[in-house]
């Protein structure tokens, strides 16, 4: 599932190409991916313009010139591609939105994901449960510690809880735990102030590096895109079960916790 770095990459790249262009056509191939009838959805979008693209946690918000919002959550398997019919990927496409004469934004793999048309108030209500942004201006050491220190939970369970902090999922929770030298299964109630501080700085470091590297999604956002997917090469533990840890030389373990895949290095990640 795309996480903060992947959605931030989508936000930045789409913002460079689609803003202020009129929406000239809309095609809906799967009505379950939207929240109104296909005809009404298309009617709402035709001749409108996207004036701003915002990321909130794992969501994208497309701000329209009439004040309405398109709220996107890709969920598991969702992908975006911006291009033409000639270079579009060979994937099942649920929604197509054309900007200008021939620039098409393809929404693919929305088996669980969705694209909903909402008022600004409705969008705000849908996202109201989300915790703060991990790299936001209002996040700092003190606030991070206050969010986690009184919880009786494992480290990974807390990091992927969108109601606590928005935008972190399976991949970066494991990478953050590795950077902090803590096991994903470590219990927050056993942490001291130094553990939380180390975890906070690990979170910032991992998410910034992954975002700068374009996230882990392998499919380009647009033709000629050489940024997307770069963080695959810098992941230390995620999806590297059985490989050698770059820090301690131990074998990286793949296991499960609460139905989620977990990757860690037993030689240099500890309970606290």
Automatic annotation (TrEMBL):
Q: Which residues form the FPG-type domain?
A: 236-270
Domain named Formamidopyrimidine-DNA glycosylase catalytic: residues: 2-136
Can you cite a GO biological process for this protein? base-excision repair
Q: Which cofactor does it need?
A: Zn(2+)
Reactions catalysed, semicolon-separated, are: Hydrolysis of DNA containing ring-opened 7-methylguanine residues, releasing 2,6-diamino-4-hydroxy-5-(N-methyl)formamidopyrimidine
Tagged with keyword Metal-binding: yes
Q: Does the keyword Cell cycle apply?
A: no
Q: Pfam families annotated for this entry?
A: Fapy_DNA_glyco, H2TH, zf-FPG_IleRS
Q: Which domain of life is it from?
A: Bacteria
Q: What is its EC number?
A: 3.2.2.23, 4.2.99.18
User: Which keywords are on file for this protein?
Assistant: DNA damage, DNA repair, DNA-binding, Glycosidase, Hydrolase, Lyase, Metal-binding, Multifunctional enzyme, Zinc, Zinc-finger
Question: Which is an annotated GO molecular function term of this record?
Answer: zinc ion binding
Concerning its family, UniProt says: Belongs to the FPG family.
- Write down the PANTHER family for this protein, in alphabetical order: FORMAMIDOPYRIMIDINE-DNA GLYCOSYLASE
Q: What is this protein called?
A: Formamidopyrimidine-DNA glycosylase
**Native species:** Paenibacillus lutimineralis
What is the taxonomic lineage of the source species? Bacteria, Bacillati, Bacillota, Bacilli, Bacillales
